[in-house]
Amino acid sequence: MGTRVLSQATVLPGLRLNDDIENIREMLEMLMSDHTPGKQNIKMKTSFGWEPPMDVFDTETEFVVVMDISGMNRNDISVFTDGHIIRISGVRKDIVPSGKKQFHALEIQVGPFQRLIGIPVPVLGESLSAEYANGILELRLKKRPGDPAHPDVDE
What is the pLDDT of residues 115-136, one digit of tens each? Predict the structure, then answer.
């Protein structure tokens, strides 16, 4: 098996990208995880903080990830892809005021999070686009033309 060189990370405007060493460490963890392209895994389990809910699907032309991460500033969200895996991470800050208080419910998760998503279809990694509005992060990657897993069908 030959050496695999990771393509450059796609940096999204307004979203920060972790330093190179952190990205290499994360990629090694992903490669050592249960993910293998043949399994067609979508979600890869991590033990890093909480896990925001997400929907992952593909259309005729795109691979799409929609994540519910309300209450965050877009500068606190980091997105990385090599065209095979997407890593979304960040930190949701606690908004509870300091001082003495008695909680009656404490359900909003805060702190660091990370989600790893295996991309089960061939995509153009450089086509990654992101939009964060009203607490919803939406990522889109264009599918590679001529994808044999999803052949064009004439009507």
Answer: 999 999 999 989 999 999 999 9
